[in-house]
């Protein structure tokens, strides 16, 4: 697991990442992983990785360093063009896998999805509802970039047997949906979103040649279907004169969001559930009071849909929270200098690591924190960077890493 954060203002963007990586299904944690990478000198861009540390069996570190080797010396005009250029590079290199391997990973991802759902259903874990919600939400989304109905048909051709076998096991665990409904949900998840199984997140931060202020793009990538990459790209933040600062957490964001929003996401969920239970109890009490006097009105009260009231409460409280707490916090970042941006970004990661250490949670965030500042004038500056070697004894490293193609 991972914690990454980008802190931006008009002066620069600071990025920080922890070093923890989980192995063996979460049974073992190592604190030596590199997740933050700078592109060669002259390219004011960094790439941070969260989620799956490999892409179809190839480590992201290998892929990113291969991308660096083929970069031209002249920087690209905008950060978004780096995102697109990286996707083109992946495709040009056949996604670092053969067509047969891509099909294998796709089928395996579908199988793992069903195994996860069976386990959660068996454990009566609420996480099953989050997966189903993501599936239902995907059904109304457009196809991911580059996908067509032919891609969808190819996915179903490749994965139908895995879906049918997985459904049989789900059905034995009491799964309520039909096979056809399940097929539609799985199809939507893999073709209209990026499946959470094996998903990796790539955070691009910095400047293109024509950019005056920094920006951050978040790119989620998954499987390859019929030669096309399952990907979703969104601009997380772009600094301009009307948006002078921002704080962008990624991966394990709960501690950072608690600090930035003033309330824990988990407790916010508890409040909403408690509110729903309170409204339900209120309906029952009111209905019981008038049951003997006016049975029809009592039945109407009992059948009232309380969800709009919960939505109204959330909207109003969220607005107040942003106005009174979150927005002033983010606005204060606009005045920080480069070194303060770096300190703040590092502190957010350290707080997340500390929370994992002193709680009963597994320490999935930890180890040394890598910190980088990127500015328009100075380019990429490492504030803190772990190395597995002594750089003074390896001068060839710099000349090799910063090689360009003309």
Report on this structure.
By secondary structure, the protein is of the alpha+beta class. It has three domains: 3-98 and 196-253 and 338-401, Glutamine Phosphoribosylpyrophosphate, subunit 1, domain 1, CATH 3.60.20; 100-191; 274-317, no CATH class. Helices cover 48% and strands 20% of the residues. The chain has twelve helices and 14 strands. The strands form four sheets. A five-stranded antiparallel sheet has the order 12-1-2-13-14, covered by helices on one side. Helix 3 packs parallel to helix 5, helix 5 (149-172) crosses helix 6 and helix 8 packs antiparallel against helix 9. The chain starts with a strand and ends in a 5-residue tail after the last helix.
In short:
This protein is α+β, with helices and mostly antiparallel strands and 406 residues long.
Topology (elements, then pairings):
Layout: E1 3-9, E2 12-17, E3 21-23, E4 28-30, E5 36-38, E6 45-51, E7 54-55, E8 58-59, H1 60-70, H2 79-92, H3 99-122, H4 127-139, H5 149-172, H6 179-191, E9 200-206, E10 215-225, E11 228-238, E12 245-251, H7 254-261, H8 265-290, H9 295-302, H10 307-333, H11 338-358, E13 370-375, E14 379-384, H12 396-401
Antiparallel strand pairs: 1-2, 1-12, 2-13, 3-4, 5-6, 6-9, 7-8, 9-10, 10-11, 13-14
């Amino acid at each position: 697991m991972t914690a990454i954060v980008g802190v931006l203002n008009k002066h620069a963007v600071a990025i920080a990442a922890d070093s923890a990586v989980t192995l063996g299904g979460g049974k073992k944690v190592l604190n030596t992983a590199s997740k933050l990478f700078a592109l060669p000198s002259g390219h004011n861009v960094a790439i941070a990785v969260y989620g799956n540390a490999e892409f179809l069996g190839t480590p992201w570190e290998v892929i990113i360093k291969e991308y660096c080797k083929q970069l031209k010396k002249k920087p690209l005009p905008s950060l978004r063009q780096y995102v697109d250029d990286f996707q083109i590079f992946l495709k040009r290199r056949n996604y670092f896998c053969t067509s047969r391997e891509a099909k294998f990973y796709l089928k395996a991802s579908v199988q793992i999805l069903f195994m996860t759902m069976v386990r959660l259903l068996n454990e009566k874990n609420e996480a099953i509802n989050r997966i189903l919600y993501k599936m239902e939400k995907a059904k109304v989304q457009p196809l991911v970039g580059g996908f067509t109905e032919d891609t969808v048909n190819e996915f179903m051709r490749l994965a139908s047997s895995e879906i049918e076998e997985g459904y049989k096991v789900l059905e034995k665990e009491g799964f309520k949906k039909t096979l056809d409904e399940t097929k539609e949900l799985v199809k939507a998840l893999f073709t209209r979103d990026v499946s959470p199984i094996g998903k990796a997140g790539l955070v691009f931060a910095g400047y293109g040649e024509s950019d005056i202020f920094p920006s951050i793009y978040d790119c989620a990538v998954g499987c390859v279907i019929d030669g096309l990459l399952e990907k979703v790209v969104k601009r997380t933040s772009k600094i301009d004169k009307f948006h002078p600062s921002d704080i962008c957490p990624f991966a394990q964001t709960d501690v950072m969001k608690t600090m930035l929003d003033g309330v824990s996401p988990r407790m916010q969920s508890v409040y909403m559930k408690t509110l729903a239970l309170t409204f339900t109890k209120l309906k029952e009490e009111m209905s019981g009071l008038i049951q003997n006097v006016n049975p029809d009105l009592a039945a109407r009260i009992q059948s009232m849909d309380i969800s709009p009231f919960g939505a109204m409460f959330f909207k109003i409280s969220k607005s107040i929270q942003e106005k009174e707490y979150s927005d002033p916090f983010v606005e204060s970042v606009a005045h920080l200098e480069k070194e303060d941006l770096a300190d703040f970004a590092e502190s957010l990661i350290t707080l997340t690591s500390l929370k994992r250490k002193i709680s009963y949670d597994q320490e999935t965030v930890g180890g040394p924190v890598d910190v980088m500042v990127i500015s328009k004038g100075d380019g990429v500056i490492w504030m803190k960077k772990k190395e597995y070697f002594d750089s003074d004894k390896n001068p060839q490293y710099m000349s090799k890493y910063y090689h360009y193609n003309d």
